[in-house]
Amino acid sequence: MSLAPRAVLVHRTTEYEELLARHGTHGQAAFFLASRGRSLDEVAERHHRTRRALAEVAAAVPLQWRQSRVERADLDRFLFAPEDVVVVVGQDGLVANTAKYLSGQPVVGIDTDPGRNPGVLVRHQPSDAGALLPCAATARADELTMVEAVADDTQRLLALNEIYLGPPGHQTARYRLGPDDPAAAPEPQASSGLLVGTGTGSTGWLRSLWQQSGSRLALPGPADPRLIWFVREAWPSPTTGTSLVEGVLESTERLRLTVESDRLVAFGDGIESDALELTWGQTVSVGRSDTALRLVG
């Protein structure tokens, strides 16, 4: 006998809650913001709107289903099950934060603040949850491409937007970069890091690099199996080159990076707290993941 689906409601701490945690009371938080020319009323209203949305979505979960909640900070410690229906209640970025911990579960994005969020990934309103959730497991879903980094010690990292490989601070990263092919000669480089991302990520950090570099590469779409990559601020020197600073990876192609610094990190979608630690001599392969994000349309 199969288990009933479990609705996992993913949310994040609001700015209002963070202010209360820092300042102790509503009055002290209001005084702090007023001293900087801001009003707490707007922040509190967004908080209440978010909480109302979360309550409305929770009430729409079918009675025979199980239900669980997880805050963004706890995602790396939460165990998602194959039968879960993941309901992200918040902003577009929260969907990306959640995607790296999933393995094909359907995701429903609920926008808590229409007009402030682009709504690219949180496509639905709280009032839609009652009709969406019962059929979410079988509903039409967009298969959004994800990117992965796999280190030679089996560490693996997934991301929906992009993976950053580079120094953890402001130092220069040194490495060798080239196709993941033993017959291809890699190029020694010194830079402030490398970004490899998807069509979903092409509306954010990747796009800014694409614009700044005046790239003529065609940006991929969210469901496009291609990935696009850029090296940030590559430095030419007698021992480091700048000929490999951008490119496209087709669905089966991968990049290989060999670390030549004491420490590099790899993290996905801006979550620096959940990073791969890479040391001198290690290699990491980056390319399209077999896992895709199933985003219910």
From TrEMBL:
<protein>
    <recommendedName>
        <fullName>Inorganic polyphosphate/ATP-NAD kinase</fullName>
    </recommendedName>
</protein>
<dbReference type="InterPro" id="IPR017437">
    <property type="entry name" value="ATP-NAD_kinase_PpnK-typ_C"/>
</dbReference>
<dbReference type="InterPro" id="IPR016064">
    <property type="entry name" value="NAD/diacylglycerol_kinase_sf"/>
</dbReference>
<dbReference type="InterPro" id="IPR017438">
    <property type="entry name" value="ATP-NAD_kinase_N"/>
</dbReference>
